[in-house]
Design goal:
- This protein has about 400 residues and is an alpha/beta fold.
- The chain contains 15 helices and 14 strands.
- Helix 4 packs parallel to helix 12 and helix 13 runs parallel beside helix 15.
- The N and C termini lie far apart (about 55 Å).
C-alpha cells in the first residue's frame, strides 16, 4: 500500500508538469527547447527558420565559430579521431588533455588543473570529494544547483548565507566549530541576476575563520578582469581563491568543466573524485577547441572591451526606459517582469520582432521575480542593441511592466 501511494505521488508530479507544458503550448507561451538550425557567432541565430538576434547566449565573447577554434578542433579529429579509449586513469591520457589542463592552470595562475565532462559534474564531484561528514560547507543562497547538489552529496554540515550578505556569511562562519574543516562556496557572477560576489570581503572572512574558498567562475571567465581571467583579476587580488572552478561550455565554446588550484589538491582529485575516475575523457575535438579558446581570449583583448561597451549600452538603455535590471553589472541582464504571465508575454512580443529571448519563471526564481534572462555578447553591434531596446521598451509599456 505504501509503495502504491508513493507511485501515485510521483505520477501526480509528472502529470502536473505535463499539464503545465500542455497549457503553455496551447496558449503559444511555451518557449523552451526551440529548434536552432544555425548559430551565427554570438549575435544571431536561425531559430524556427527565422533569422533572430541572439539575446540568450552564454557565449559572452562571441567565440562560437571562431576560425582558429574550429581549425583546432578539426586538427584534433584528424590526429586522434572522434573519441577516446575510455577513462583517463585506466585507458590512458592523451597529451592533448595534459596540454589543456596546463593551459587552464596558466590562465588561472594556478599550479595545476583537472578537467571533467561537464560543469555540473565538476561541482558535484569536487565538493563531495573534498568535504565529508563532520566538515562544514557554507554556500551563497543563490548558488547554482550543481553547487547545492555537491554540498548535499558530501554529507557535510550544509549551511547557506543570505545572498552576497557578508554579515550573514560571518554569522555562519562563527557558528562552525573551530576544529572542523570549512569550505565557503559562491558563484563569481550569479547566473540569474548577473551581480558579482563581494570577493574581497569573502577572502577576508575566509582568512579570519580559517576556511577554504571555492569560486564557481562559469559566468566570470571572459567577462571579468582586464584580460578576461575572472574575478581575482577583476578585483586585483592575485591568487586568493583556493579552488577555482569553471566551465568549458559558455564563454569557452566547447564542453566540460575544470577546477584549478594547488598541485597536491589537484593530484588528490585525480585519484579520489568519482567523476574523474569513472567518466570517459573529453573528446579530442572539444579539448582542442577549449585549449585554443583560452589562447584567443588573450590574443584578442578587443572582445573584452566590446563586451563591456555593449553591456553598458544594454543595461543603461533598459534602466533609462524604466526597467528593473536588479543589481547586474555584467552581460547577464535580468529584465524583471514580476509575475510569470508578464514574462511569457514579453518573451512572445520580443520573439515576434525577431529577438531570441527566453523567460525564467517560478520555481527557477521566486514567485514575483519572473524575468527575461537576457544577455549581450562582444559581437553585438550598437545598432542591433538599439533595435532590441526599442522593441523591449515598446512591449514593456504595452504589457504594463514599465
Amino acid at each position: 500500500m505504501e509503495s502504491n501511494r508513493a507511485n501515485d505521488a510521483v505520477s501526480q508530479r509528472i502529470q502536473a508538469m505535463v499539464d503545465r507544458v500542455t497549457d503553455l503550448k496551447a496558449r503559444e507561451r511555451y518557449f523552451y527547447n526551440m529548434p536552432v538550425t544555425e548559430l551565427r557567432g554570438g549575435a544571431r541565430a536561425i531559430v524556427n527558420g527565422r533569422d533572430m538576434g541572439m539575446y540568450a547566449s552564454y557565449g559572452y565573447l562571441g567565440l562560437l565559430g571562431h576560425p582558429r577554434i574550429g581549425e583546432a578542433a578539426k586538427a584534433a579529429v584528424d590526429k586522434y579521431g572522434t573519441g577516446t579509449n575510455g577513462v583517463r586513469t585506466l585507458a590512458g591520457t592523451l597529451d592533448l588533455h595534459i596540454e589543456l589542463e596546463q593551459t587552464i592552470a596558466d590562465f588561472k595562475h594556478a599550479e595545476a588543473a583537472v578537467t571533467y565532462t561537464s560543469g555540473y559534474a565538476t561541482n558535484l564531484s569536487v565538493i563531495s570529494t573534498l568535504m565529508g561528514r563532520g566538515d562544514w560547507v557554507i554556500s551563497d543562497k543563490y548558488n547554482h544547483a550543481s553547487i547545492v547538489d555537491g554540498c548535499m552529496m558530501s554529507g557535510a554540515m550544509f549551511r547557506r548565507f543570505k545572498h552576497n550578505d557578508m554579515a550573514d556569511l560571518e554569522k555562519r562562519l562563527k557558528q562552525a566549530p573551530s576544529d572542523v574543516a570549512k569550505l565557503v562556496i559562491a558563484d563569481a557572477v550569479f547566473s540569474m541576476d548577473g551581480d558579482i560576489i563581494d570577493l574581497p570581503k569573502v577572502v577576508e572572512l575566509c582568512e579570519k575563520y580559517d576556511a577554504w574558498l571555492m569560486m564557481d567562475e562559469a559566468h566570470s571567465v571572459g567577462v571579468l578582469g582586464k584580460t578576461g581571467r575572472g574575478i581575482e583579476e577583476h578585483f586585483g587580488l592575485g591568487d586568493v581563491v583556493d579552488i577555482k572552478m569553471g566551465t568549458l561550455s559558455k564563454t569557452i565554446p566547447s564542453v566540460g568543466g575544470y577546477v584549478a588550484g594547488k598541485k597536491d589538491m589537484m593530484d588528490y582529485l585525480r585519484h579520489a573524485s568519482r567523476a574523474y575516475i569513472f567518466s570517459a575523457a573529453l573528446p579530442p575535438a572539444q579539448a582542442a577547441a577549449a585549449m585554443e579558446s583560452f589562447k584567443v581570449i588573450l590574443d584578442e583583448p578587443w572582445r573584452m572591451e566590446s563586451l563591456q561597451a555593449n553591456t553598458d549600452q544594454f543595461i543603461g538603455g533598459l534602466k533609462a526606459a524604466g526597467f528593473d535590471t536588479m543589481l547586474t553589472e555584467t552581460a547577464i541582464v535580468p529584465i524583471l517582469c514580476g509575475d510569470d504571465e508578464r514574462a511569457y508575454d514579453l518573451t512572445a512580443a520580443c520573439q515576434a520582432k525577431d529577438l531570441f529571448m527566453l523567460p525564467v519563471v517560478s520555481p527557477a526564481v521566486p514567485n514575483g521575480l519572473a524575468r527575461l534572462r537576457s544577455t549581450v555578447t562582444a559581437t553585438h553591434k550598437t545598432d542591433e542593441i538599439a533595435y532590441a531596446l526599442e522593441v523591449i521598451t515598446k512591449a514593456g509599456k504595452e504589457i504594463g511592466i514599465i
